[in-house]
Design a protein that fits this description.
67 residues, mainly alpha, 3 helices, 0% strand
Length: 67
Amino acid sequence: MHSSRFLTAPGLVASHPEVPWQDAIALRHVLVHRYFGVDLGIVLRLVTDDLTPLEHAVRAILAELPS
């Protein structure tokens, strides 16, 4: 499923407020559009501290979706 379609699925985002949707979208925007201005220290912290809980949350959501 394309990511934009996933995020616009009716009620999906609202039913999972534990996922920092807007933060993930904002990070992608910075990485894609302002890559020369990316603070690598912040990216490292995000990867080491925040990525695993986000991955677990998204995997749980995907497991709930019909295939």
